[in-house]
């Protein structure tokens, strides 16, 4: 096993559910995740696997009265976030941890101009006494990087389209210079050139400030170019994690990962999208026993239907699958 590096965020045995009028949805079911300082961790998995729910849980932004953390812990530095009071979370959000939302909630203030709202965030991260002209130069720079014309900075949020407001959200999340950035599909709504610029901005933050990132994406090209490690999520739990090279080049994988990545092509093949796999994830309104992938798995054994597989870690590469449970450690190459 790799030495434990420098963990910034540690999630242990997290369970999150949504209580809806139609019953309970078990969205996160025993999720474990470690994010080290300065590391970019890709979170990959099919729709409904629990990626957004994981990010919202970290920031305690689950929909009020519907979504709740039922058990488990989320530790950031030495502090527990899962049971932190709202006042504390307000201090953390946007200063230490910021998020680029998949569905922008647009926390923009309707009575302040776009430029003023970006400037406000930049000011709080510039040394005291930084000249207004310098801040304005930075506002123009960051607007250009996310594909917004700086000459529209005097306009108000209602004058911006949905897509433009999303770019403002991205600009603000990045201008916060957070220690941890949760980026939920940050580039899907953007055109290719701007996508590349936003990823550059994110890499710049990492190089300049050692920002850690949880990067939720469906784009394997983005994973290969931007991430240090990858975590594969399925039915609300992490079923495989490893260094990017392990995920792309090692032979041994969870059968779900193999299916998803289309037998793990080398990146030269320019395989960009995740493969659809036949079948569906288990019904999230039922607490399943055994391995959640069993019904779709080509290697299903009797034990898979009755017992949850335990994580097997070899040289820092973790796989949660009964196929690997009996293998001796070190036999993973
Ligand atoms: N507000 C909500 N109320 C009820 N169920 C919800 C709510 N939000 C998410 N869910 C359910 O929780 C599960 C996880 O959803 P989540 O949005 O975290 O998935 P995701 O991995 O982000 O998917 P996608 O790739 O489509 O964004 C799904 O079964 C989803 O239907
Ligand atoms: Mg999502």
Write the layout of secondary structure elements.
Blueprint: E1 7-20, E2 23-36, E3 40-44, H1 51-58, E4 67-76, E5 79-80, H2 86-92, E6 97-100, H3 114-123, H4 132-145, H5 162-175, E7 180-184, H6 192-209, E8 212-216, H7 220-226, E9 229-234, E10 237-243, H8 244-249, H9 255-260, H10 302-306, E11 312-314, E12 317-319, H11 322-325
Parallel strand pairs: 3-8, 3-9, 6-7, 7-8
Antiparallel strand pairs: 1-2, 1-4, 4-5, 9-10, 10-12, 11-12
Helix pairs in contact: 3-4, 3-5
Bound molecules: adenosine-5'-triphosphate and magnesium ion.
Q: What features would you describe in this structure?
A:
This protein folds into two domains: 8-96 and 179-291, P-loop containing nucleotide triphosphate hydrolases (Rossmann fold), CATH 3.40.50; 106-177, no CATH class. It has eleven helices and twelve strands. The chain has helices at residues 51-58, 86-92, 114-123, 132-145, 162-175, 192-209, 220-226, 244-249, 255-260, 302-306, 322-325; strands spanning 7-20, 23-36, 40-44, 67-76, 79-80, 97-100, 180-184, 212-216, 229-234, 237-243, 312-314, 317-319. The protein has an eight-stranded mixed sheet with strand order 6-7-8-3-9-10-12-11, with helices on both faces. The chain has a four-stranded antiparallel sheet with strand order 2-1-4-5, covered by helices on one side. The structure holds adenosine-5'-triphosphate and magnesium ion (MG). Magnesium ion is lined by residues 51-52, 102, 184.
């Amino acid at each position: 096993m790799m030495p434990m590096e420098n963990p910034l965020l540690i999630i242990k045995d997290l369970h999150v559910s949504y209580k809806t009028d139609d019953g309970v949805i078990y969205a996160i079911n025993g999720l474990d995740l470690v994010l080290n300082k300065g590391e970019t961790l890709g979170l990959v998995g099919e729709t409904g696997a629990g990626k957004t729910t994981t990010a919202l849980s970290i920031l305690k932004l689950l929909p009020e009265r519907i979504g709740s953390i039922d058990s488990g812990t989320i530790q950031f530095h030495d502090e527990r976030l899962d049971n932190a009071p709202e006042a504390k979370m307000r201090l953390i959000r946007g200063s230490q941890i910021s998020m680029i939302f998949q569905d922008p909630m647009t926390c923009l203030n309707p009575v302040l101009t776009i430029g003023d709202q970006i400037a406000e965030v930049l000011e709080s991260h510039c040394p005291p006494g930084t000249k207004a002209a310098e801040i304005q130069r930075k506002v123009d720079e960051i607007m250009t990087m996310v594909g917004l014309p700086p000459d529209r900075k005097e306009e108000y949020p209602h004058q911006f389209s949905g897509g433009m407001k999303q770019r403002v959200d991205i600009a603000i999340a990045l201008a916060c210079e957070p220690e941890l950035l949760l980026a939920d599909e940050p580039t899907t709504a953007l055109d290719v050139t701007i996508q590349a610029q936003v990823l550059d901005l994110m890499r710049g933050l990492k190089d300049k400030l050692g920002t850690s990132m949880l990067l939720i994406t469906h784009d394997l090209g983005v994973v290969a170019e931007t991430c240090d490690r990858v975590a594969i999520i399925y039915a609300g739990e992490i079923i495989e994690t490893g260094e990017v090279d392990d995920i792309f080049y090692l032979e041994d994988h969870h059968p779900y990962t193999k299916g998803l990545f289309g037998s793990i092509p080398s990146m030269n093949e320019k395989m960009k999208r995740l493969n659809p796999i036949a079948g569906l994830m288990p019904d999230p309104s039922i607490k399943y026993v055994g391995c959640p992938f069993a019904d779709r798995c080509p290697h299903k054994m009797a034990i898979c239907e009755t017992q949850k597989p335990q994580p097997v870690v070899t040289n820092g590469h973790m796989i949660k699958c009964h196929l690997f449970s009996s293998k001796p450690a070190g036999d993973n190459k």
